Amino acid sequence: MSVTRENMKPLTFVFEDDGLVPNNPLPFLVYKQAIDIDNGHPEKTIEGLFGVNGWGEMWRNGVFDYLHYHATVHEALGVARGHARVRFGGDAGKEIEIAAGDVAILPAGTGHQCLSHSRDFCVVGAYPPGPRMHVTLPTPENHAKALKTIPAVKLPETDPVLGEDGPLVRLWK
Predict the structure, then answer these.
(1) Which of 11-25 are b and which e, b meaning 16 or more Cβ less than 10 Å from the residue's Cβ?
(2) What residues form DSSP beta bridges with 10?
Protein backbone atom coordinates (compact mmCIF):
# COMPACT_ATOMS: atom_id res chain seq x y z
CA MET A 1 0.00 0.00 0.00
CA SER A 2 1.40 3.38 -1.05
CA VAL A 3 1.70 6.25 1.41
CA THR A 4 1.75 8.88 -1.35
CA ARG A 5 -1.03 10.32 -3.48
CA GLU A 6 -1.12 9.34 -7.14
CA ASN A 7 -0.39 11.77 -9.99
CA MET A 8 1.19 14.41 -7.75
CA LYS A 9 2.88 17.43 -9.23
CA PRO A 10 4.95 19.68 -7.00
CA LEU A 11 4.65 23.44 -6.85
CA THR A 12 7.91 24.93 -8.14
CA PHE A 13 9.66 28.19 -7.30
CA VAL A 14 12.99 29.68 -8.33
CA PHE A 15 14.52 32.24 -5.99
CA GLU A 16 17.14 34.76 -7.06
CA ASP A 17 20.46 35.26 -5.32
CA ASP A 18 19.92 38.28 -3.06
CA GLY A 19 23.58 38.94 -2.25
CA LEU A 20 23.45 37.18 1.14
CA VAL A 21 21.39 34.06 0.41
CA PRO A 22 22.63 32.44 -2.80
CA ASN A 23 19.56 30.26 -3.41
CA ASN A 24 19.87 28.02 -6.47
CA PRO A 25 18.83 28.07 -10.14
CA LEU A 26 17.27 24.64 -9.55
CA PRO A 27 13.60 24.91 -8.53
CA PHE A 28 12.50 24.64 -4.92
CA LEU A 29 9.67 22.07 -4.80
CA VAL A 30 6.63 21.71 -2.53
CA TYR A 31 4.37 18.69 -2.61
CA LYS A 32 1.09 19.62 -0.91
CA GLN A 33 -0.69 16.81 0.99
CA ALA A 34 1.76 14.35 -0.55
CA ILE A 35 1.97 11.77 2.22
CA ASP A 36 -0.83 9.91 3.95
CA ILE A 37 0.11 10.52 7.57
CA ASP A 38 -3.31 9.68 9.00
CA ASN A 39 -1.93 7.12 11.43
CA GLY A 40 -0.41 7.03 14.89
CA HIS A 41 3.17 7.31 13.66
CA PRO A 42 3.50 9.96 10.93
CA GLU A 43 7.22 10.51 11.59
CA LYS A 44 7.95 6.83 10.94
CA THR A 45 5.82 6.94 7.78
CA ILE A 46 7.85 9.87 6.39
CA GLU A 47 11.16 8.33 7.47
CA GLY A 48 10.21 5.08 5.74
CA LEU A 49 9.29 6.88 2.52
CA PHE A 50 12.45 9.02 2.46
CA GLY A 51 14.59 5.98 3.32
CA VAL A 52 13.18 3.72 0.61
CA ASN A 53 13.89 6.52 -1.87
CA GLY A 54 17.55 6.77 -0.84
CA TRP A 55 17.44 9.88 1.36
CA GLY A 56 18.98 9.54 4.85
CA GLU A 57 20.76 11.35 7.69
CA MET A 58 17.24 11.98 9.04
CA TRP A 59 16.24 14.05 12.03
CA ARG A 60 12.98 15.14 13.71
CA ASN A 61 12.40 18.69 14.92
CA GLY A 62 11.11 22.00 13.56
CA VAL A 63 12.58 24.62 11.24
CA PHE A 64 14.95 27.19 12.73
CA ASP A 65 13.40 30.61 13.39
CA TYR A 66 16.40 32.42 11.89
CA LEU A 67 17.36 32.71 8.23
CA HIS A 68 19.84 30.05 7.14
CA TYR A 69 20.71 27.76 4.24
CA HIS A 70 22.79 24.67 3.47
CA ALA A 71 25.60 25.22 0.96
CA THR A 72 26.82 21.62 0.70
CA VAL A 73 23.66 19.53 0.45
CA HIS A 74 20.05 19.46 -0.77
CA GLU A 75 17.33 18.99 1.90
CA ALA A 76 13.88 17.42 2.13
CA LEU A 77 11.46 18.54 4.86
CA GLY A 78 8.47 16.26 5.45
CA VAL A 79 5.82 17.72 7.76
CA ALA A 80 4.66 15.00 10.16
CA ARG A 81 2.45 17.07 12.47
CA GLY A 82 0.98 20.54 12.72
CA HIS A 83 1.62 23.45 10.39
CA ALA A 84 3.97 26.40 9.98
CA ARG A 85 4.52 29.53 7.93
CA VAL A 86 8.03 29.36 6.50
CA ARG A 87 9.78 31.93 4.34
CA PHE A 88 11.76 30.19 1.62
CA GLY A 89 14.29 31.99 -0.59
CA GLY A 90 15.57 34.55 1.93
CA ASP A 91 14.12 37.90 2.96
CA ALA A 92 12.86 38.57 -0.57
CA GLY A 93 11.54 35.00 -0.96
CA LYS A 94 8.05 33.60 -0.50
CA GLU A 95 6.11 32.80 2.67
CA ILE A 96 4.47 29.38 2.37
CA GLU A 97 2.15 27.61 4.78
CA ILE A 98 3.26 23.99 5.14
CA ALA A 99 1.16 21.41 6.95
CA ALA A 100 1.08 17.74 7.91
CA GLY A 101 1.55 15.61 4.80
CA ASP A 102 3.44 18.29 2.84
CA VAL A 103 7.04 17.92 1.66
CA ALA A 104 9.39 20.77 0.75
CA ILE A 105 12.56 19.99 -1.20
CA LEU A 106 15.26 22.63 -1.05
CA PRO A 107 18.14 22.68 -3.52
CA ALA A 108 21.45 23.57 -1.86
CA GLY A 109 21.63 27.28 -1.01
CA THR A 110 17.89 27.84 -0.56
CA GLY A 111 17.26 30.19 2.34
CA HIS A 112 14.60 29.21 4.87
CA GLN A 113 13.24 30.53 8.16
CA CYS A 114 10.22 29.54 10.25
CA LEU A 115 8.06 32.60 10.95
CA SER A 116 5.34 30.89 13.00
CA HIS A 117 4.15 27.37 13.80
CA SER A 118 1.58 25.34 15.67
CA ARG A 119 2.62 23.86 19.02
CA ASP A 120 2.64 20.33 17.58
CA PHE A 121 4.69 21.20 14.46
CA CYS A 122 7.16 18.42 13.66
CA VAL A 123 9.28 17.97 10.55
CA VAL A 124 11.38 15.04 9.36
CA GLY A 125 14.48 16.29 7.56
CA ALA A 126 16.53 14.15 5.18
CA TYR A 127 19.38 14.43 2.68
CA PRO A 128 20.54 12.52 -0.39
CA PRO A 129 23.85 10.61 -0.09
CA GLY A 130 26.81 12.97 0.10
CA PRO A 131 28.30 15.50 2.48
CA ARG A 132 26.78 16.16 5.87
CA MET A 133 24.47 19.12 6.39
CA HIS A 134 25.93 22.32 7.82
CA VAL A 135 23.89 25.35 8.84
CA THR A 136 25.10 28.45 7.00
CA LEU A 137 24.15 31.96 8.07
CA PRO A 138 23.63 34.73 5.50
CA THR A 139 26.85 36.77 5.65
CA PRO A 140 28.91 38.20 2.79
CA GLU A 141 31.78 35.80 3.61
CA ASN A 142 29.51 32.73 3.67
CA HIS A 143 27.82 33.87 0.46
CA ALA A 144 31.18 34.06 -1.36
CA LYS A 145 32.11 30.54 -0.18
CA ALA A 146 28.65 29.15 -1.05
CA LEU A 147 28.92 30.39 -4.64
CA LYS A 148 31.82 27.93 -4.98
CA THR A 149 30.33 24.95 -3.08
CA ILE A 150 26.74 24.98 -4.37
CA PRO A 151 27.53 24.21 -8.04
CA ALA A 152 29.58 21.20 -6.86
CA VAL A 153 26.70 19.63 -4.90
CA LYS A 154 25.79 16.38 -6.62
CA LEU A 155 22.26 16.03 -7.97
CA PRO A 156 20.21 13.38 -6.15
CA GLU A 157 19.44 10.22 -8.09
CA THR A 158 15.93 10.03 -6.63
CA ASP A 159 13.01 12.19 -5.56
CA PRO A 160 12.52 11.68 -1.78
CA VAL A 161 8.74 11.35 -2.28
CA LEU A 162 8.32 9.59 -5.64
CA GLY A 163 11.67 7.85 -6.15
CA GLU A 164 13.70 7.44 -9.31
CA ASP A 165 10.88 8.49 -11.64
CA GLY A 166 9.76 11.45 -9.52
CA PRO A 167 9.49 15.04 -10.79
CA LEU A 168 12.63 16.17 -8.96
CA VAL A 169 14.77 13.93 -11.17
CA ARG A 170 13.40 15.57 -14.33
CA LEU A 171 13.19 19.14 -12.98
CA TRP A 172 16.74 19.18 -11.62
CA LYS A 173 18.51 17.96 -14.78
Answers:
(1) eebebebbebbbbbe
(2) none
